Fold this sequence. Notes:
The structure is a homodimer.
Chain A: H1 3-11, E1 22-23, E2 29-30, E3 39-40, H2 43-58, H3 62-65, H4 71-79, E4 90-92, H5 96-110, E5 116-120, H6 125-138, E6 142-146, H7 151-154, E7 159-165, H8 177-186, E8 190-194, H9 206-209, E9 213-216, E10 231-234, H10 278-287, H11 296-318, E11 323-324, E12 336-340, H12 344-353, E13 356-357, E14 359-361, E15 365-369, H13 377-393, H14 399-402
Parallel strand pairs in A: 2-13, 5-6, 5-7, 7-8, 8-9
Antiparallel strand pairs in A: 1-3, 4-10, 9-10, 11-12, 12-15, 14-15
Helix pairs in contact in A: 1-13, 2-10, 4-10, 5-6, 11-13
Amino acid sequence: MDRAACVERDLADPLADRRDAFVLPPGVLYLDGNSLGALPHGVAARLQAVVEQEWGNGLIRSWNDAGWVDLPARVAQRLAPLVGADADEVAVGDSTSVDLFKVLAAARTLRSDRRVLVTEQGNFPTDLYVAEGLARLLGDVEVRSVASADLPAALTPDVAVLLLTHVDYRNGRRHDAAALTAAAHAVGALTVWDLAHSAGALDVDLHGWNADFAVGCSYKYLNGGPGAPGWLYAARRWHDTASTPIQGWFGHAEPFAFGPGYVPAADARRFLAGTPHVLSTAALEQALHAFDGVKPSDLDAKARSLTDTFVALVDERCGGEVEVASPRDPAVRGAQVALRHPRAYALTQALIGRGVIGDHRPPDLVRLGFAPLYVRHVDVYDAVEILADLLATGAWDRPEFHRRRTVT
Amino acid sequence: MDRAACVERDLADPLADRRDAFVLPPGVLYLDGNSLGALPHGVAARLQAVVEQEWGNGLIRSWNDAGWVDLPARVAQRLAPLVGADADEVAVGDSTSVDLFKVLAAARTLRSDRRVLVTEQGNFPTDLYVAEGLARLLGDVEVRSVASADLPAALTPDVAVLLLTHVDYRNGRRHDAAALTAAAHAVGALTVWDLAHSAGALDVDLHGWNADFAVGCSYKYLNGGPGAPGWLYAARRWHDTASTPIQGWFGHAEPFAFGPGYVPAADARRFLAGTPHVLSTAALEQALHAFDGVKPSDLDAKARSLTDTFVALVDERCGGEVEVASPRDPAVRGAQVALRHPRAYALTQALIGRGVIGDHRPPDLVRLGFAPLYVRHVDVYDAVEILADLLATGAWDRPEFHRRRTVT
């Protein structure tokens, strides 16, 4: 496959024009949108207006006049179609970790006669930390982490909740969410899906999966900015009975009534807690305009095309030097590809030094993400060219590339 | 007292120059810094740089290069001296509600042989909601809300935690935090102080009070912007044993090691959860520069002077028309004064219509806050002049001032 073939693919790409919605620094091939999405145009101006006009001039009046009070709901409205949900099933706020705590506690309370929470060994560490923290707090919950292959067998009738991350953060393996949800339901368990590495990149279909709860991150493929708010999904069928463990005023049916007793909002808004982070949430609202009119299936098709192209080019150009550690079947792969190399840290740093930004996941992975809105097939081609050159020349093996940094 | 006397007081005010650190819209007397602090100069530029340079250009590299990874710790360092704490005892992140949930759960776990959480009737509603939510989740905790006067008697040996808000959000009554903390300790209970209406305005002295835990809000007197991150305090003596219920990766001893087991950070950082909201946290970091070199006792003295001036002027000019609903002794009053009026909502709207921005707290209070960094004694004078005029002429009683808005 030559560069012209990649140009062809870009010409045929229905999402090609979306790249113009982003600020992309010159000289950079950005393959880390799975860690922090690129900056959409319009966000800087929007934040400036929020700070100078809404905060500086409007002051407290902006809760009404600038609609801060509806900000989480407005973002939910933009986000819901990207994950196959309705807006009143999505609550935007806090962080993914806090949101996960909330829905795990809610799901467990809905199955309070059961004590087991099943998850996967090698799930995203924070997900395991949060689950174990909840178990420790409640005292009567057992977290059972099993190998991926053992998940079906682990779904026994004592299981309250199945907690899984849709796409593995290291190797990019994608679960069959519908099948696993059905298997959980078959034993009476509820499901909590972590969509951090899926939403905004893949065909996420929470209604189609019949999912109960989910959480996601909006600073990766959703491009909401560093530390953008997390979000959660609560299927409509649980709106009457699911309760948040963190009863903050923004989840109250009438937040500004300052009533003495907590009355939860009627829909997923009941999972909001404190005052929304207006600056971060406004940035996210603006950023989501880049998805206007985009369907999850469009994103998925583009992600498959990009990762297929990458895998094929790596096989062609770098065979033997690195191993593709991600599934080769795009149906079971996310929008990212991991390459295995014995000195993956240095190789990652060398790529970054040449403008190919990905990241390292210990011990031996170079992880590259292919955000469908702004990565082109020619970017994939050019990145592999640089990778092949680094490997062929050994130029990755310089002392400066082995020096450790805090964040890798 | 005439206006010249207020000018005199401003001339003698050691914090007078701090007003220049803020953007204050023309034609506004802003007496709602207890609800949303004014915009400090420099915040807009800082956010612009974070968005355009750090996010847009630096992308994922900014975790290292722009020091995002240390942002919560840097803010803690600025905040700690304002509340009489050391930086490693303060964790900045999430919201006040979520932070309250965390420290309440931690305190309760440290006193797991006791089942009672004592708080005050009329405590800030969210504080009660959060406490009741935790009690419901744990099942074996009883929330006992008593009248202020009955607090000492309520401290019995079955009390695990005393949860109080230092300054009452409606009438501004200030608790004797040192005395109540000692009383709680005398029966073996721990204390959780909500400093939302204190930090940045009063002489908060967590070490001097011998406090165990505290939470605060940074969008009120700390001027961090709408929905700025919450913060919490955990006294050093609890660092080894206190555990957060929400074990997120940012509270891990080595967040970027992605290790399989949760190992809490050695200090209050263990209470952080998910990825920090970088935009909101950077705004707060910048905003706190307005406090450079300011001691909590300076803030307290200015707050007393402003509220004393206000009460004296209201007595002089509006006597009989409104009632001062806040304590008259500044030692037991926060930086805010509430006025009672049978049609307080309309009176608040009429004041806002004339540029005096305060807020209404149902059923019958007009609440006015006196942020010590930017409110002048002449502002107090001018505000009372407008209030007196509205009351004398009955101009507050127009239909448009009775119309209800979402946020009051």
